[in-house]
Amino acid sequence: MGKVVLKFLFFACLIVVVLGVGRYWYFLNTPCSDSEEKIVFEVSPGVGLNLIASKLKSLDLISDIQLFKLYVYLNNGVGLLKTGEYLLSPSLTPIEVYAILITGKSILHDITIPEGYNIFDIASLLEQKGLGDKDEFLKLVQDKKIIYELGLEGRSLEGYLFPSTYKFSKSVTTEKIIKTMINKFKNVFTDEFNQRAKEIGFTKHQVVILASMVEKETGNPIERPTIASIFHNRLKKRMRLESDPTVIYGIENFSGNLKREDLKRLSPYNTYKIFGLPEGPIANPGLEAIRAVLWPEETEYLFFVSKNDGTHVFTKNYTDHQKEVHKFQKLGKYRHGKSWRDLQKKNVLE
After folding, report:
1. In the CATH hierarchy, which fold is given to the domain comprising 109-188?
2. Which stretches does DSSP call E strand in 21-125?
3. What is the pTM assigned to this prediction?
4. 20 to 30 A from 37, CA-CA: which of 110, 157, 268, 337?
């Protein structure tokens, strides 16, 4: 009798094991459904396997929490699940879901940094896109250690965060974003550019400073070499550069309306008060603004005034300049329109 019972228990256990293994195998190789719906699944930093499995189940991406956890444990995969965003669907098997979650190949998001954006603009844009914290970005781009490690100079990385379209995952670090933009700049600023800078008596940093001014002053891209030539001509004649955007950059919490009293305040960026270039770049220039500074148009122009439509009138002497200022800046009938950038900041004097 005892042998019969033992045999029965043995076969009962064997059946349970076989059924269990069969269920486990079926679970691993069977999708929840044949739906091809794409679902963005996010694994946040610090989230454990329990929460990940529960979330997968709630989204009908797996059919059994415990069996999925078992598979992960048996594959020593607890520490392999990567933070990020992944594109999953109910038509994937649990094995395929697991394989995707350990790749770390997160969804990439496009972000375009426009030419002429400064560090504050970029910080706000990154935060808006969910790619970082604004305050952390501003802290890091002004970190002296990071600036030194990157082989750059200045109080911040302003000017070197190259305007372009980038692809980043939501899990990317702010430091990685910054270094990617800096590397893009270094690839763009070639040996030819360095050689040309020496030929015109400029350092790389001075080129970037002046290019940032050209970028902010230009509403119409075709005018960049002409505006660059005016700044070069004024520097050669020891004239102040008198650029409104530099003054604006030096004003904390700028209201959007540049006043005459602002032009009288002494600051390292007020080119109405100082000679030469401002202390540092005022924005991040694009390739064409850099080219314009290195290869400016040959002109005798010393002045330019906005026509309030994104273009300018260029003049060679102060008398003609004053006539154009009166025409375009003081007569109401000419004060209309906006540049192609929608004139982010108003430069018209009260």
Report:
1. Dna Ligase; domain 1 (3.30.1490)
2. 39-43, 84-88, 109-112
3. 0.81
4. 110
